[in-house]
Write a structure and sequence with these properties.
The protein is mainly alpha-helical. Helices cover 76% and strands 1% of the residues.
Amino acid sequence: MQFESFSTFNIAIVVLAIGRWLNQRVALLREFNIPEPVSSGLLVCLLLALFHSVTGIEVGFNLATRDFLLLYFFAAIGLNADIRTLRAGGRPLLVLVVVTVVYMILQNLTGVGVATLLGLNPLIGLLGGSVSLLGGHGTAIAWAPRFAASHGVENALEIGIACATFGLVLASLMGGPIARLLIRGNKLQPAVRSMASRVDDGGRPAEPISYFSLLTTLFWLNVSLALGEALHEGLRAMGRQLPLFVCCLFAAILLTNTVPRLARFPWPAGSRSLAIVSDVALGIFLTMSLMSLQLWTIAELAGPIITILAAQFVLAFLFAIFVIFRVMGRDYEAAVICSGFGGISLGATPTAMANMAAVTQTYGPAQRAFIIVPLVSGFFVDISNAIVIQRFLNWLG
């Protein structure tokens, strides 16, 4: 049974709405900060797996629209990556970027090492490394076709999604205990006790959404995609390989740091219109990817995946305590950053923010952490991860 592209897109909208309904009513999903597409997408794929086991019928979906939404999402990240904003993090931002890249390499070495010890294809370990954990669902889904087509890992998508999903849960469980251990063990106190001093969005008033602002956003996203496609084709002609979504990310970064300085065009960076398009693209993208999973294809890998994730959990916990905490200053802010790092190391930016919010609600504000961690996880991780993954593929493939 196969659903064509138009039907798949509309089914995904319904499934995403179910995810929102579930998260509003199931407290456990909110406590672990499980995204709405994950809640309902996994439910649907579990039901389809049960349906397959009973009837033997495989339900499939045409995912052509999903791949286009992926490009929109990464282009939106690029359009928000103004170099002037990134400079605001200062030296701590640079330090955290460097140690995160080091951790990224260690995470991949751990995954590859455990997979090799278990007698598996090392590329399965790479999927259980920064592809799915630091990268999250989006990166895992984006790279999976490359693993399948060029490196013979046929169930790469299912493995990547499984690791990313369980990584979210582990990341949610890790952040609080790390901060509690560091804060109480070192008797740390926040520099400012008033929670009212935290700045969420730079104090700028929210820009209203109009049809013109939405059209402007779509136009520049499309320009980013066109430029990214040209970059992708140019690299391929030179014998270089980068995924199309990475090329679109770089193209959007180039545009957002040149066009506004050369001409006074309306620019979507930081706008609500761009945020909405990005959220819609990511939400439908994740929903379509998760609901189309064929879980029965990875049943035999359940044990190895759990083993790889257990090793990654231990690595992330120890790295946060013994490396991140030390290089970030060994103070209260550093402890909160460690809780956020627990979120991004195995989960995603929302998990990191949720971890830090829970800590600051209990112990007090940490302004620097709320500036630095989102910048690292929302921008630098995507770029550096693409480079690191490519290097590992060249090494292992």
